[in-house]
Structure formats: structure tokens, C-alpha cells
Amino acid sequence: EKPLPLDPKLKSSWDNFHDQIELIFTKDEKLNEGLSKDNMKARMERLVRATQEHVCYEAEQLELEACRHSGYFITLHFLKKNKNIIITVLIIVVITGAASPHSGGLTKVLSNGKVFEKAGVSVSVSSGSLSPAAVQQMTADHVELKQLLVIFCLFGQKKLGDEKGNVEFFAASVSSVIHPWNPHAPTGHFNYRYFELGDVDKKTGEFVCKVWWYGGGADLTPSIIYDEDCAHFHNTLKQACDPTDTSLYPLYKKWCDDYFLIQHRNERRGIGGIFFDDLTCGTNDTKNSKERLMGFVKDCASAYAKAYIPLVRRHAFQTYTPEEKDWQQLRRGRYVEFNLMYDRGTKFGLMKSGSRIESILMSLPLTARWEYCRDPVHDFEIAAHKVYTNPHDWLANATKK
Amino acid sequence: EKPLPLDPKLKSSWDNFHDQIELIFTKDEKLNEGLSKDNMKARMERLVRATQEHVCYEAEQLELEACRHSGYFITLHFLKKNKNIIITVLIIVVITGAASPHSGGLTKVLSNGKVFEKAGVSVSVSSGSLSPAAVQQMTADHVELKQLLVIFCLFGQKKLGDEKGNVEFFAASVSSVIHPWNPHAPTGHFNYRYFELGDVDKKTGEFVCKVWWYGGGADLTPSIIYDEDCAHFHNTLKQACDPTDTSLYPLYKKWCDDYFLIQHRNERRGIGGIFFDDLTCGTNDTKNSKERLMGFVKDCASAYAKAYIPLVRRHAFQTYTPEEKDWQQLRRGRYVEFNLMYDRGTKFGLMKSGSRIESILMSLPLTARWEYCRDPVHDFEIAAHKVYTNPHDWLANATKK
């Protein structure tokens, strides 16, 4: 079977989510009761939780359709109860993290579905104290943050942290890795996060934020390259970036290509997307504002399902050859290499005491493969490898056609 | 089927290899022609090459028997030509490394055999110049070596290396990872290596060795624990260590348990064996001598096939359940985690420019698996997990019975 065309009717569903998020943030007075507009922590927590719900819901819908597609109702692993259809629930994984005081995590994993081999969407909201060693580790990966901390120390009259060098933090993040079975359907990943570092006011005992930043991005990892898919993914991300600033997409596209490099092979794990970190601004910054940057992150987070899910939908039921499945498994091996060896989040997570190992390694595929001296052989392999080693400008190609 | 008993008739073959090695080193004048007894480089090169031949030969024999076992002659992937039997050779991989001047590598990989999923035995003999950064990386992992270098700098009248801090080196090593198909048959690994660091004599242009050391070890990774297997493996290694010094086995057994720890899971990848590094001695050391340490490494290297191959032989044709195969695949995932995240050799190899990535990652299994929140369930899983988290004294258990 050929890939299905993108279904325009579905578009309303994605746009609808963006409107809902917009509503939560700006319009619905009841929802915002008790939340002042600059309460970034609470709003970011809402955003990450809503994004998780949304992406999980879309994945579930696809699983439900998959059951109808094959003409019979198989046992279904799913994440959220659906009122309209009675289905057998095999896995509902709801785990609350206990890494630090006042922390809450919610990991959702769909395993062994009909469409998805392994799909994880994870939310983590946590706060507590970072040791001097953890702060050092963090600043090593965050060059701009380090500069911020220097500025803070120079102008803020006192050093960040208590006498022992412990620094208080707050973090809210949503992240997801989705691996479909079909080798024609790409693996998708996104992560959006908000960080605050600060002190405890000795008089009031309250947390006072001193440095904050956003980070995140979304990237696509197809084993078999469909130019139309790549262009759709990148274009959707660009549409999400452009309202804030049209300079962001090209900048973050390049950052993404640089970040997802498997250094020892000099090839990328996929075809990229966007990546950014240390996104912050000064209090007197007239061009940027915390509000504006929050809007940017919100636009990106709410665009993910729209960028990714249609690509799985197109290819989920496509026929494939054993050679195509084998190649997918080899690329899964590359995914494992990147995540275990280079990914900042995985490294930081595993080094932080009290982390949930299973949440961190949720991103690994169900199965992976390594063959000795296995160079690309088939045309689809050679074409894909060419893209992994030479990042494309997908939108330039799209407008040319 | 139950595991086969260890075959006493085979014992002669293993002992025979040890005698051959002994012959090469001490008795056969013709073989030693042109090699003075203290020419450690040339002798170590012979040892690593002979060990590779030996382990590959044993693996091949098992593959040949596997063909007879199932009653028909399947296409066979093998490594060395066998004069007595006409067989189809599908893979002969012989690659000469080109990492540095005067280097020579020989990697042998048997893939997709009847007994072995992936079996690699690799030899590397190389020399050249290490950059100051590479020397720093090396000393970070070698605490005792660092002390040696300090002593050398204090007493040697001058600093090691040229004006730019480049240090000349020589290295000869043999390493192997063998993954059988059958989940009852354990994965085996060994590595023995010899290192020299030194200067080039400005008058003669010849390399002058200033610091040298041996390193290596062997360890076993069963998915399903057979106490008898573990005891046999450890006992064979102990027998190889004891002639040099009976204090070595307990010391290196513990080092091995400490080294093969997957830190983020606080469990070992297998049931251990022996591990040592930075093994050297002063020129006036009366207890140790370079010759004596060479003898120790030779005894260990020549004992490996005897320690490992019989265990594969016992279990290669045992029937197994899908649950047992699944568990093996999950343990393969742990193997990947250790090798990519913690193994010194892998990390050093991938950071060194000009390395052969394929040789370094040869140790990865053909396939591996990760399931979310997959705790040990079946009795054999729980029993194995208990051993990975609490290293056993296998020989104490053996004598008790």
C-alpha cells in the first residue's frame, strides 16, 4: 500500500487544541482563578500536563482506529478511559515521582499497541535543592546560563545559593518519545521545559526566583525518508515559531541539527526539527518578555501533535518488507547510542540522585539491532543515510517543488 | 532438554593450547628466533594473535558440530578455512586498522551462526603518538598509572613526552565478546592488553619505553544462572591466577564486580570474573618482574576458551521458552547500557581520533530490548537479578556442596 494522504478533516482537531490552550492561558477567568498572569510556574505546569493529555489522546485515537482497520477488536493497551467505547484496559501506568519535596511526575506509556511499539509521554514537575555538584554539572551544559549566573553574582550583590552552595530550583517539563511499529512511520520526540533557580527568603521562608529559562524542541527520526513528511514536520514547527519571531526557526533548526549528532559516527539520529535552551530575558528587555517567551513555548508545545501524528497516520498500515523492518531496527540502535551517550537530559537525569530510571530510559525503543560493518545497501537506506550525514533545508526543497 | 554435562574428553584440547603457548614462549628455539626473551612487544603480539586464533577455532568447531547436530548441513559463516571439510564461506572479515603508523588490527566476527548470534574476537597492535589531551584522558581512568608518571617525572630527571607534550605509545591487545542465541548459554567477554609509553631517543630515533603496564580480565554474563557454570568459569580463572600468586584471584574478582556495575541501576551486567589494570613493577622489584607478569597474562589468556566455551557447549541446543528468550533480550539491553555508558575501552576508543568504530562497537549484541517498568517476574529472572545485585563468592559455594 502507498502512504495515505494527509487528511485535511483532521486539521480542525489540532487547531482546536491550540485554541483550548489559548483559552486556559488567557480567556477563561474561572480556570485562571487564583493564578495571577505572571505565575509562570503554575501556568507552565498546566501547559505540560495539557500537552501530555493531548498527545496521548491522539495516540489512543490512532490505536482505536487501528482496531477497526483490521476488522476485529483486539485487546488494547491504552492510557485514558474513553466513555464511548468499552475496551479492555491492560496497562494504565500512573506513577508519582518522589525525587524531591513538592515534586509530582506523571509518566504515561503505551506498549505493544497495534500502531505503536512503545509510546511514552512524561510530565515532571519538581522543586527542591540542588547540590553544588549538580549546579556545576548543569552550568557545564548551559553556557548561556553560566553567563547569567555570573551577571547575577556581579550585580545581585550576593552569591546564588545558601552558605553550603545549595541552590533552590523549580522545574516543569513534558517530554515524549513515540516509536511506531511500521518502518515507514517515523519516530517522534519532543520536550519542553521551564527552570527556575533561586533562594529561600530567610524572613518569609518563600522561594525567590533569581534565574529562569525555557528549553526544548521537537525532532523527527524516520528510517525511510519521505520528503513530504519531513517538509510537513518542519513547516508545522516553523508556523509555530514565526508568530514570535521569524528568525527563530532557522536558528533553532540549526541548533537541532548540531545537537542530535552521534559524534562517533558523524551522523544525526534523524532529520531534525527545532532545539533551543537557556531561553531567558532581562527584566528590562523591551523586545523579549517572559510572557512572550512563554507564548513561544506554548505555540511549539501545542503544535507537536499536528506536526507528528499525521505522519504516523499516513504510514501506520502501509505494507513493508523484511529489509525495511531490519533497517528500522538498525536505526533504533543508533537512537539508543545517541540517547545513552550524548543526550543531556538522560545524562543529567541518571546522575541526579533520586531520579526515576524507568522514566528517563522510557525513550529507548522496545527493540534495537547492531550488525557488524553494516553499511547502507538498499536505495532507501542510502538515501536516508545521506540525509543523516548532510542535514537538509526541508522548506527550501518544498517551495522549489 | 537438560543442559549437557561438561565433557571431560574436551579438556585435553584446552590444556593443549596452554602447552602450545608455553612452547612459543619458552621452548621452541625456531619460533623465538630473532626475539630476545625480554622483547615484550613482539611476544605480547604473538600472545594476542594466538589467543584470537584459539578462541575463534573453538567457536568454529562448535558451529560445525551444530550443523551435524541438526542432521543437515546449513550454510555456515565461519572465520578460518578448514582443510578437512568443504563448507560455504559467507563471511570472512579481515580488516587492517589504520589508526596510526605501524599499527595492525585484525577483527574476526562470526554473525548469524547456528550457535552464535554474534561472536567477535579482535586483535589490535598499534603504536604512535598520543596528544596531551589523550594522555590526560588516559591518566584520569588509571589512578596507579598517574602515580607512576609522577614518580617518573620526579626521578626521571625530565618530563615524559616531547616539547608539545605528545607521548609515544605502543599497545597490543586481544578482546572478545561472544553472544550465543540460546538464552541458557551465557555471553562471554575477555580482554588482555599491554601498554608502553615512552620517548623517542633524539640521537638514534628509536622508541625508549619509560612506563609499561598490563591490563585485562574475563567476565561471564548469563541470563539464566547455572551455579555449576559460574563455579566452573570462576574456578578456571582462579587456576590461571594461582601459579603467579594466590592473592590475585580474590583481588581481581572483587575489582571485576566493582567495574562491571551499571551505576544508574545499581546492578552488575553479569556474574563477574576477574579484572585488573595498571599491572607493572619497578626494575628493582624482587617479588615481581616483567617476565612474571607476562606469564600471568599468558596464563589468563590461554585459560579463557577452557573457562567459557564448555558453557556454550552445554546449553547451545537446550530447548527454551519465549519467556526465557525475552529475558535474555532484556539482559542484552543492560549489556548495551554498560558498554555505551561506562566501559573504559569503549569510551576511550570512541574519543580517540582515527579509531575503527565498528571494531569498538563489535561488542554490542545483534538485538536488544527495553520494556518500561519491567521488573523480574519469573523465578529464573528473580534468581538472576539477585545475583546481579549481590555478587556471589562462587568458589565458596562450590566447596560447600
Structure description:
- The structure is a homodimer of 401-residue chains.
- Chain A has helices spanning 11-27, 40-69, 132-141, 143-155, 227-241, 248-259, 290-315, 322-341, 344-351, 357-360, 379-389, 394-400, and strands spanning 104-111, 116-130, 167-180, 187-200, 207-221, 261-262, 267-268, 272-279, 367-369.
- Chain A is α+β, with helices and mostly antiparallel strands.
- In chain A, the strands form two sheets. Chain A has a six-stranded antiparallel β-sheet with strand order 1-2-3-4-5-8, with helices on both faces. The first copy, chain A, has a two-stranded antiparallel ribbon with strand order 6-7.
- The radius of gyration of chain A is 21 Å and the shape is globular.
- The two termini of chain A are 24 Å apart.
- Residues 27-31 and 69-103 of chain A have low confidence and may be disordered.
- Chains A and B meet through helix 8 and strand 9 of A and helix 8 and strand 9 of B.
- Strand 9 of chain A pairs antiparallel with strand 9 (367-369) of chain B.
